[in-house]
Amino acid sequence: MWSHERQAKILESLGRDGKVQARTLANMFDVSRETIRRDLMELEGRGGLLRVHGGALSTSDNVHPEPAFADRLEIYTDVKYHIGRKACELISPSSTVFIDAGTTTLAFAKSLIGISGIRIITNSIEIARLGASSGNCEILLLGGKPHQEVPATYGELTLSEIDRFLADFAIVAPVAFHITRGATSYELHEAEVARKMMRRAESCIMLCHSEKLGKESRVAICRADEVDHLVTDAGEGSDMRLPRGTVHIAGG
């Protein structure tokens, strides 16, 4: 089992039980206590848990899972459309962009393919299909393990393939954005892809409708001062200011 798969299952156990024991985890995964200790240290560094003697405690008492991908496609559709259109104003023709998988980034991609000469690198199967059918852009779908619920690839292969490229922009849509906690995701594998894309891009554009502002989920993607552009709508919380980046408000 890959380390990210093991860590995802640790987070699942924490979400269900509120705590985990290192000895129990070592027996469950048939690995050493030292391996579990490293897993817990990594997850604590990403804000996913609090290590205690003999195990770890959940730090996400008020964090709930995202709705299913199919359900998310049906909500905030107008807001996502306008956020996507606004974000496209920041993209120059012939740019290379990383785009992570999500319903807001899918809405963004629908507008992006109208810009000439765009090169898209994504783990989203839906965005790759959309780009390939447009004939107006160059598209690359990152390899990896397909996810059962979200139509996208994840895992060690996806992360290693991201490392092969440099992009002008990384387009990321987090589960939540908090000025102190930064951008967060509910799923570890999604946060890993977003974080790696940001590291391999010159600039980060974060797409986040106002309902997600001032909130936090369980796995850290980045700090607020690592975001160059935050594109949101004019709802509650949209008066947020970034430490060094710019906030763009999408009109209706």
TrEMBL record:
Gene3D superfamilies: Winged helix-like DNA-binding domain superfamily/Winged helix DNA-binding domain (1.10.10.10). Residues 3-58 form the HTH deoR-type domain. Keywords: DNA-binding, Repressor, Transcription, Transcription regulation. InterPro entries: Carb_Metab_HTH_regulators, DeoR-like_C, DeoR_HTH, NagB/RpiA_transferase-like, Tscrpt_reg_HTH_DeoR_CS, WH-like_DNA-bd_sf, WH_DNA-bd_sf. GO terms for molecular function: DNA binding; DNA-binding transcription factor activity. It comes from the Bacteria. Pfam families: DeoRC (PF00455), HTH_DeoR (PF08220). SMART domains: DeoRC, HTH_DEOR. This is Transcriptional regulator, DeoR family. The lineage of its organism: Bacteria, Pseudomonadati, Pseudomonadota, Alphaproteobacteria, Rhodobacterales.
